[in-house]
Amino acid sequence: MNPLVTLYYSLQKRFASIARHVDGLPALALRLYLVPTLWMAGSQKIDMGTLMPNQSIVDWFGNPDWGLGMPYPTLMAFLAGWTELLGAIFLAVGILVRWISIPLMFTMAVAAYTTHWDNGWQAIADPGAPFANERVMESADRLSAARDILRENGNYSWLTGSGPLVILNNGIEFAATYFIMLLALLTLGGGRYVSLDYWLDRWLGRR
Q1: What are the angstrom distances between the C-alpha of 134 and each of 115, 122, 126, 140, 160?
Q2: Positive or negative, the Cα torsion across 202, 203, 204, 207?
Q3: Are 93 and 121 within 8 A, CB to CB?
Q4: How many CB atoms lie within 10 A of CB 25?
Q5: CB atoms within 10 A of CB 106
Q6: CA nearest 86: which of 100, 74, 107, 76?
Q7: Which residue spans within the chain are E strands per DSSP?
Q8: Are 44 and 8 in contact (CB under 8 A)?
Q9: Please, what are the averages of pLDDT over each run of 10 residues along the chain (207 residues)?
Q10: Is the pTM of this model over 0.85?
């Protein structure tokens, strides 16, 4: 074998041996990234006083005209909200990571299909970005009109002081991204050294 190829694979093997001691960090990063998103989504659905879904969420889940038109909306809202809340807690401490990833992936898939699918890919409308559909292309005219109105009638520099105006497209981009992150956690688990799953597995393995 070519000496350079041999050297390459030797160095790669050595690097992998060293890197395995921190291979839990990617799983930790994925978990901590998802925690606030899941907690906010779940807490918007569940009334923490009654531990039941907020009526506005139930109405949105069940109404076929302006909502999702889902069957058993109270049950579906309850399951979605508590899956997200428990998911945030479990991911935060790294317990049952692989198991909780499964219902969370299902929740993201349902959200992508029922809420975001018809809007295309993009979460924020950007005609210059990939996967811009007709809805996104039309948003450019609306955004331009909104800017003109605000320049004429408002303090435009103040209104855009924290960033430019955008139009929410509400596509599947975020739901798909979270699904992929959860799919990675389904494979990676909670992560070496940085999850309760890891230490529980070690403790049980010694008994």
Answers
A1: 18, 12, 11, 10, 26
A2: positive
A3: no
A4: 14
A5: 15
A6: 100
A7: 46-47, 52-53
A8: no
A9: 82 85 93 98 96 96 92 96 98 97 97 94 91 90 91 88 91 97 97 94 83
A10: yes
